[in-house]
Design brief:
With about 110 residues, the chain is mostly helical. The chain has four helices and no strands. Helix 1 (about 1-55) packs antiparallel against helix 2 (about 60-75).
């Protein structure tokens, strides 16, 4: 009888161990997938910002300041992961950077 309970206990411990392993492996895979999706969203947003700055012929110091600020937002978790086609790319910029970018956009009207 003791021998039977020993087998039941061993089998139960093995099953619990397998379930715990499966849950841990699934959780790790989910975390890695989420990190990959966040990195892709960051790259998509960065590409769109760079394209817009090229289009508006922003000077290099302004481009670098905007890139640095966007990197800061992403690195510290303040940036939105959803890259909406219709959203304002530069909506999170500080007023000074927004003003400088607006001047670049309208430079041909001023000259």
């Amino acid at each position: 009888l003791t021998h039977t309970w020993h087998h039941v206990y061993t089998s139960l411990c093995t099953m619990v161990g397998l379930i715990v392993d499966a849950v841990l492996i699934g959780s790790i895979a989910q975390v890695l997938s989420a990190l990959g999706a966040r990195k892709r969203a960051q790259q998509d947003h960065t590409d769109k910002v760079n394209q817009a700055m090229r289009h508006h012929m922003a000077p290099l110091p302004l481009k670098n300041a905007i890139r640095d600020y966007n990197k800061y937002l992403w690195d510290n978790g303040h940036a939105s992961e959803e890259v909406d086609e219709h959203a304002e790319l530069f909506q999170d910029l500080p007023k000074t950077l927004k003003s400088k970018l607006e001047l670049c956009k309208k430079k041909n009207l001023i000259n």
